[in-house]
Design a protein that fits this description.
The protein has a single domain, classed as 3-methyladenine DNA Glycosylase, Chain A (Roll), CATH 3.10.300.10. 14% of the residues lie in helices and 29% in strands. It has four helices and ten strands. It binds a DNA duplex through strand 4, strand 5 and helix 4.
DNA sequence: ATGTGGATGGTCT
DNA sequence: GACCATCCACATT
């Protein structure tokens, strides 16, 4: 199943995703492991960048003002499920849905550091295994992980997609950078909110700053 | 290292 | 018809 990783990593409890502070969850997702198993191919990466999108009051969120459409329906789903949508007509983006059922908080996963299946990632993306853009940025990481819209609305604790903790790994606060979010200039004052979290100096972190 | 412009198509007004 | 929670190639500093 999860091959050699299964013995080391563990599922996250529902309480992890139920937290009301979506920014705290985005921060805590740094260092966690995202895994996909698609067509018997396992790929995994450590989360190194994530952004919080906060429910109804956040103008950068697809659910701003309580907006609810066919596209963003999964934002209103159960905590610990996925919300995948297509951006710019071609890039899938994967989010982790948080807070209680019906409250559309979500964390956008923006970058991973490859942990397993790097040859599969290279095949899917047409890039070299040592290309640092292979899982850098929300569109790139979805391509490397094989994530598409059909993986939206799924619990992140069973095939084909998992979110796991690595008990032997922790991220100290001094390793964490915080900034405004990327690509949300249209969100007025909310564009400046410090809702982006990343691991300082990690070569897979997208945008800037990276330190 | 930084900036620009084009690709590309779903979604909402 | 306008707007994107982006990426890549290519130009310029």
């Amino acid at each position: 199943m999860l091959s050699n990783q299964k013995s080391n990593y563990g599922l996250l409890p529902e309480s992890f995703f139920l937290h009301k502070d979506v920014c705290a969850i985005a921060r805590q997702l740094l260092g966690k492991i995202m895994v996909t198993e698609i067509n018997h191919e396992c790929t995994a990466g450590r989360i190194v960048e994530a952004e919080a999108y906060s429910s109804l009051s956040d103008r950068a969120s697809h659910a701003y003002g309580g907006r609810r459409t066919a596209r963003n329906e999964h934002m209103y789903g159960m905590p610990g499920t996925s919300y995948v949508y297509i951006c710019y007509g071609m890039h899938p983006m994967v989010n982790v849905v948080t807070n209680e059922h019906g409250i559309p908080d979500a964390v956008l996963i923006r970058a991973l550091e490859p942990v397993e299946g790097i040859t599969v990632m290279a095949k899917r993306t047409g890039k070299a295994q040592d290309d640092k853009t292979i899982t850098k940025g929300p569109g790139n990481l979805c391509r490397a992980m094989g994530i598409d819209k059909t993986l939206s609305g799924l619990f992140l604790q069973s095939a084909p997609i998992y979110l796991l903790q690595d008990p032997g790994y922790s991220i100290d606060d001094h390793m964490v950078g915080i900034s405004r979010r990327i690509g949300v200039e249209g969100a007025g004052e909310d564009a400046a909110l410090p809702y982006r979290y990343y691991i300082r100096g990690n070569r897979y972190v997208s945008g800037s700053p990276r330190t």
